[in-house]
User: Which sequence fits this backbone?
């Protein structure tokens, strides 16, 4: 995983010299852009010094995938709830034993914005929120999801696995760290 | 000189009053765009913010949306327009990912929030592989966007 060294001489964020990197509060951590069709995308060695993470993805190809943290495949540790629209039908529901990352019915791609809140806090379970959707000019879905990983461990890795379908070339997964004030 | 931040404001427009606004000559060196709209329609009626890219006609767009008001929830599709309904006022945020790529159609998410009466989410498809170089927002209400409405375009850079 790529990393970036910031050169601050104090927590006030003063730069040490011209040419230093000032990336603001949103730090790009790593990007995965599969050149060929694949079924897994992983972010490993995620640094723990941010307040939140945001994963911005454009998933090409139809099918659905799961999101797992720290290689924890114990399905009972995951739970999610969602609401959304599909054509003229609204829906809401929950999934025990799962945190679904994307569920696209179109090869045109599914857009996903995932926020992982307090991902490194060892005093609480980890809650995520998603906005995701796909449209295919006549069919489509858009929905909001919250998911829970019932572990107090800090999140150090993310693994997205296609359960059906694949991640086609053109897919794009970008992970960012979000800093709090004074960090 | 320090390098630019990850999330960079590209341009902000504050309207006096207009039916539409355009962001042109969008730089191509970001990964995603975020467009934040905070405003209302001039006549106060519910309306649609139609979003078009590169001056292309409406034949290339479609949307799927759902929303909830104080009582009900709705879902629907539109086949000649991209963007979102917004219930006359509030905050609308477009998330336009991978906007500069030349190999895929462009899918983008929108969240609209109106504390007075509704909340919604929309996904839109722009069926073009051209990179997005301009964005036009058109308030379909007869009165257009009200004076004081603000529009800010940000660029996001991935690692």
Assistant:
């Amino acid at each position: 995983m790529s990393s970036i060294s910031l050169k601050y001489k104090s927590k006030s964020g003063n730069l040490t010299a011209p040419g230093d990197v000032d990336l603001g509060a949103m730090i790009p951590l790593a990007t995965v852009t599969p050149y060929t069709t694949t079924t897994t995308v992983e972010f490993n060695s995620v640094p723990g010094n941010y307040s939140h993470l945001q994963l911005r993805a454009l998933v090409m190809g139809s099918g659905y995938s799961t999101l797992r943290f720290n290689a924890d495949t114990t399905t009972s540790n995951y739970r999610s709830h969602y609401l959304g629209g599909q054509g003229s039908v609204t829906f809401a529901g929950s999934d025990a034993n799962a945190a679904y990352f994307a569920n696209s019915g179109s090869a045109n791609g599914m857009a996903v914005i995932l926020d992982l809140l307090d991902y490194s806090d060892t005093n609480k379970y980890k809650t995520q929120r998603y906005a995701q959707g796909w449209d295919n000019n006549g069919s489509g879905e858009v929905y909001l999801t919250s998911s829970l990983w019932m572990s107090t461990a800090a999140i150090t890795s993310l693994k997205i696995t296609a359960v059906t379908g694949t991640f086609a070339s053109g897919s794009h997964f970008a992970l960012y760290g979000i800093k709090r004030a004074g960090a | 000189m320090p390098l630019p931040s990850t999330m960079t404001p590209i341009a902000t427009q504050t309207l006096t009053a207009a039916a539409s606004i355009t962001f042109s000559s969008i730089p191509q060196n970001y990964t995603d765009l975020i467009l934040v709209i905070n405003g209302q329609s001039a006549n106060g009626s519910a309306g649609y913010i139609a979003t078009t890219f590169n001056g292309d006609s409406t034949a290339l767009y479609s949307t799927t949306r759902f929303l909830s008001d104080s009582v009900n929830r709705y879902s629907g599709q539109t086949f000649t327009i991209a963007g979102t309904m917004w219930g006359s006022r509030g905050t609308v945020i477009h998330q336009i990912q991978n906007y500069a790529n030349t190999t895929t159609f462009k899918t983008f998410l929108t969240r609209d929030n109106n504390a007075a009466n509704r909340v919604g989410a929309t996904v839109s498809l722009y069926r073009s592989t051209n990179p997005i170089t301009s964005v036009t927002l058109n308030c379909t209400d007869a009165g257009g966007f009200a004076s004081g409405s603000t529009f800010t375009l940000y660029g996001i850079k991935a690692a």
The two ends of chain B are 20 Å apart (CA to CA). Chain B touches chain A at residues 1-3, 5-7, 31-32, 62-67, 73-77, 79, 95, 97-98, 101, 103-105, 107-109, 111, 121-125, 127, 156-159 (CB under 8 Å). Chain B has one domain: 7-156. Residues 21 and 127 of chain B are 22 Å apart (CA to CA).
